[in-house]
Amino acid sequence: MGYKIAVAGATGAVGREMLQTLEERNFPADEVVALASKDSVGVEVSYGDKRILKIQALDQFDFAGTDIALFSAGGSVAKEFAPKAAKQGTVVIDNSSHFRMDAGVPLIVPEVNADAIKGYTKRNIIANPNCSTAQLVMALKPLHDVFKVKRVVVSTYQSVSGAGKPGMDELFNQTRAVYVNDPIENTEFTKQIAFNCIPHIDVFMDDGYTKEEWKLAAETRKILDPDILLVAHCVRVPVFIGHAEAVFVETEKPIDEQGARDVLSAFPGVVVVDHREDAGYVTPQECAGEDAVYISRLRRDPTVANGLVFWCVSDNLRKGAALNAVQIAETLVERHLSKKAA
Description:
The chain has about 350 residues and is of the alpha/beta class. It has helices at about 15-25, 75-85, 110-115, 130-145, 165-180, 210-225, 255-265, 285, 320-335; strands at about 5-10, 30-35, 45, 50-55, 55, 70, 90-95, 125, 150-160, 230-235, 245-250, 270, 295-300, 305-315. About 30% of the residues lie in helices and about 25% in strands. The strands form 3 sheets. A 6-stranded parallel sheet has the order 5-2-1-6-7-8, with helices on both faces. Strands 10-9-11-14-13-12 form a 6-stranded mixed sheet. Helix 4 crosses helix 9 (about 320-335).
């Protein structure tokens, strides 16, 4: 017996990726429902390569009998509809930031803290972390287990798909406008993104950091270890898909390049591509469409006693969002809902 799955926000970039990922990974679903706003009712979306689903209205959908709902519809939508679905017995896996720091909601990257999924029973809700956090903790977890990470400094280079389809459209339209000498219009971003970098993602907070930078620190501590100190600087770059991070790690125990390379290479979902030669590293362009978190440019940080520097890239629509959500659903089925799969 399979599961009934709903995907809320199915017309967005991440929602479409969720549908694709469910099919690619042969998730045991007997029925998949695509949900979005009433304005999108009747729009067709693909479920894999062979099936087409018609959008139904989220605000009119009855979640009774739905086993799992993957939400990628934004924080305000999740705030209103996720608890309603949860009360009807549906386990909600939410991709927005709304529930991430809720003490009663587990924040999960399955390779890192799968055991924490059991906490879903408090609210029937599981949170998916920020896309940058997901790939970062994948890299930090094996290092933390062996060398005990105590401080992280990270600069992110985040693609426009992190702002959804409108962000991707804006980069495309502005790039075209530059070449044909049309006026540049900024709608999704505060400044021109084409041929530019913007050191501003999400809203500014009172201390001068942006909420995106705060999320990286707070979510990493919740997922991995509350004692880790982390400071971040987040930058939007003119790349369509794939987030990159320059990571500086300080550990309590002595750390060496080869030891770090070995533990990272052995960790599920992490691939080390680190050749000290031209093109001996992975870029966002190369990781688009891939599931792995790629680590390159590993070297010792000579400015601290136990330090390591590396480059980390991943497809933010996949491991940073859709894939991670589907992996959470898979773990939920395997460990907590398995009696239904028999």
